[in-house]
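User: Just a sanity check before I run the rest of the batch. Below are the structure tokens for the first item. I only need the designed sequence back.
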């Protein structure tokens, strides 16, 4: 095969592979009852924070070589019902009398959330998973360097957290998408419910992978949570804020979001 022909074929193959990956911000669904997913762009950011809580330090550079997808909203009761109907999930969790539908699903153990992800992956044939905490923070910041994607001041009624001016501040969750999306197209990254991620707990970011993958060593009886909730004050909803909980905990404060690898 001539060098010119080979080069042309390689270029066509490369273009075909590139065409498989949707543009950043693209919203898609892999099935009618699957969560809406948003393509998060490849890129780098400085994650964590210095000069504050020790568990947020050190600030460290992370680079995502490839785009990935993250659910546009926290996983809702409607999403969970689809899994229940398909017998991929075993029970309908308590909604704390707030209502189900578009509200984030709560009162689940970590294992139950992992079960939903496994069902979603099996049902669609796509590589769904829980996001790493680095992916979560990168997506929450959406290119910004403030405590929230819009800046350092929490403002009024921009997120659902205690003293944030939201309708359910300190009272309970709100339906997914009650607030504006960040520049990446993601809703409710700050407040509403905590979001459990894939990482086992480490007391700080020392040794965190530079490629943004999840840390699966450490204390895996405790898992990392991000984003704060309706119950907690604004600083807890900041992009860099980290928390942990035992994997067996079920709480009206805790939900999750799903990630998906792209071709």
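Assistant: Here's the designed sequence for the first item:
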């Amino acid at each position: 095969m001539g060098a010119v022909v080979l080069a042309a074929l390689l270029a066509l193959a490369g273009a075909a592979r590139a065409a498989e990956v949707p543009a950043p911000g693209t919203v898609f669904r892999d099935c009618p009852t699957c969560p809406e997913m948003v393509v998060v762009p490849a890129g780098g950011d400085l994650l964590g924070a210095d000069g504050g809580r020790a568990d947020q330090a050190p600030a460290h550079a992370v680079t995502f070589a490839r785009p990935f997808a993250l659910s546009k909203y926290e996983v809702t009761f409607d999403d969970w019902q689809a899994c229940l109907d398909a017998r991929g999930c075993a029970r309908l969790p308590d909604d704390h009398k707030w209502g189900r539908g578009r509200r984030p699903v709560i009162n689940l153990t970590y294992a139950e959330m992992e079960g939903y992800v496994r069902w979603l992956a099996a049902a669609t044939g796509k590589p769904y998973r829980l996001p790493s905490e680095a992916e979560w923070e990168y997506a929450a910041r959406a290119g910004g360097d403030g405590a929230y994607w819009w800046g350092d001041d929490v403002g009024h009624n921009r997120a659902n957290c205690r003293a944030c001016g939201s309708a359910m501040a300190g009272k309970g969750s709100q339906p997914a998408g009650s607030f504006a999306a960040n520049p990446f197209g993601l809703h409710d990254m700050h407040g509403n419910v905590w979001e459990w991620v894939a990482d086992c707990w480490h007391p700080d970011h020392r040794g965190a992978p530079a490629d943004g993958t999840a840390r699966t060593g450490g204390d895996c009886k405790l898992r990392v949570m991000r984003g704060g909730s309706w119950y907690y004050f604004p600083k807890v909803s900041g992009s860099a804020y980290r928390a942990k909980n035992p994997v067996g905990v079920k709480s009206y404060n805790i939900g999750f979001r799903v990630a998906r690898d792209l071709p």
